[in-house]
Amino acid sequence: MAYEQLVVDRDGAVATVRMNNPAKLNALSDTLTRELTETMASLQDDATCRAIVVTGEGRGFCVGADLAALQPLYAAGERPKLSGFLRGGYNNLIPLFTENPKPVIAAVNGVAAGAGLSLALACDIRIASEDSSYLMAFVRIGLVPDSGATYLLPRAVGHAEALRLSITGDRIGAAEALRIGLVSTVVPADRCLGEAQELAARLAALPTAAIGLTKRLLAEASGATLPEALELEARAQDEAGATDDHVEGVMAFMEKREAAFTGR
Ligand code: LHQ
Q: What whole-number distance in Å separates Cα of residue 43 and Cα of residue 17?
C-alpha cells in the first residue's frame, strides 16, 4: 500500500515501518498519524508478520505533534481543546504499539521529542543510534506530557529521572539515555536500523504467541497484587501451553535439535 508519509517494507516475517516526513524531523502530521495508525492496526492483524521495526527517515526519529498545524489556529485567536487531538489521534495509536501482540522495536535514528519520544517509549525495545537525542519537549511549549509518556517514561527510567526530564525539557544524548535506561543499546548511526532488523528477525523466529502473552502479562502485572499476578500468569500459561510452539519447544529440547517455531 502506498502512503504519503510512511514507507513499509517486508522482509519475511519482519515489517519495517519508516516515518517519512523528514523535512519536519517526522513531526506527527494528521497524515502521518493516520497512516501510522492504519499500518500498526493492519500489522497487528497480519499473522504473517511476527516482528515490527519502527524508525524515521532523515535525521529525526519523530518530534511529536506538528506544531505548524497549531500556528494558524492560534494566530486566528482560536483555542481548540487539545484533548481532541489526543482522543482522536495519539490515544488510538499508542495501544497499537503497547498492546500489539508482536514485538515492536524502535530504531531511534535521530531526535525523539514530545509525542515522538512517547512513541519510542511505546516500543518494546529501543536501539539507539549514537547520534540520537531525547527530549520531553512538552514543557517547552507549556504543555504536559501526553501519548502515554506519564505512564511509560517512569517505568523505563524511574520516577525521579522521569520527573527531571519532564519538567526541564532538557535534551539528552544517547549515552545518557543508555545510562538512565531509556534505551537498551547504543550503536553507530550506520548500524542502527540493521541492528534493530537483526533483533527483529531473531524475535520473529521465536514463539510469537508467547511473546504477545508476555507483553500482556507484564502490562497487567504492573497494576496487580502478587496474588492477582500469579492468577494472571496461570491463565496465560494455559493459552501458551495450548500453542503448537510450546509442544515444539519441549520436543526440540528433548530431541536435542533446534526448534522450528511457527508462531502458532
Ligand atoms: C517541526 C517540529 C514540530 C513542526 C521540528 N512540528 N515542525 C502537542 C500539541 C497538541 C496536542 C497534544 O499533544 C501534543 C504533543 C506533543 O508532541 S508536544 C511537543 C511537540 N514537539 C516539540 O515541541 C518539538 C519541537 N522541535 C524542537 O524543539 C526542535 O526541532 C528539536 C529540538 C526537536 C530539534 O532541533 P534541531 O535539531 O535544531 O532541528 P530544527 O529545530 O532546526 O528542526 C528542523 C525542521 O523541523 C525545522 O523546520 P525548518 O523549515 O526551519 O527547517 C523545524 O521547524 C521542523 N520541526 N519539530 N514538532
A: 10
> What is the model's pTM?
0.97
Separation between Cα atoms, residue 68 and residue 25, nearest integer Å: 13
Cell numbers of 29, please? 502530521
How far away, in angstroms, is 199 Cα from ligand 1 center? 30
**Rounded Cα–Cα distance for residues 133 and 173 (Å):** 4
Reference 125, options 65, 198, 220, 205; nearest CA is: 198
Rounded CA separation 4/92 (Å): 20
DSSP state for residue 237 in the 8-state scheme: H
Pairing of strands 51-56, 6-11: unpaired
Residues having CB closer than 6 A to ligand 1 are: 24-25, 27, 63-68, 82, 85-86, 111, 113-115, 135, 137-138, 140-141, 143, 146, 171
Name the residue of 32, 33, 62, 63 to mutate for ligand 1: max ligand atoms within 8 A of Cβ.
Answer: 63
Residue 201 near residue 51, CB atoms below 8 Å: yes
- What is the mean pLDDT of each successive set of 10 residues along the chain, which is 264 residues long? 94 98 98 98 97 98 97 96 95 98 98 98 98 98 98 98 98 98 98 98 98 97 96 98 98 98 96
Q: Where are the beta strands (DSSP E) in 109-164?
A: 111-113, 125-129, 133-135
Q: 251 vs 208, 212, 246, CA distance in Å?
A: 18, 22, 9
pLDDT at 30: 96
Index of the ligand 1 atom closest to the CA of residue 143 = 18
The grid coordinates of residue 187 equal: 550503536
Residue 105's identity, in one-letter code, is: I
Cell 492477582 found at: 228
In the DSSP assignment, the letter for residue 17 is: E
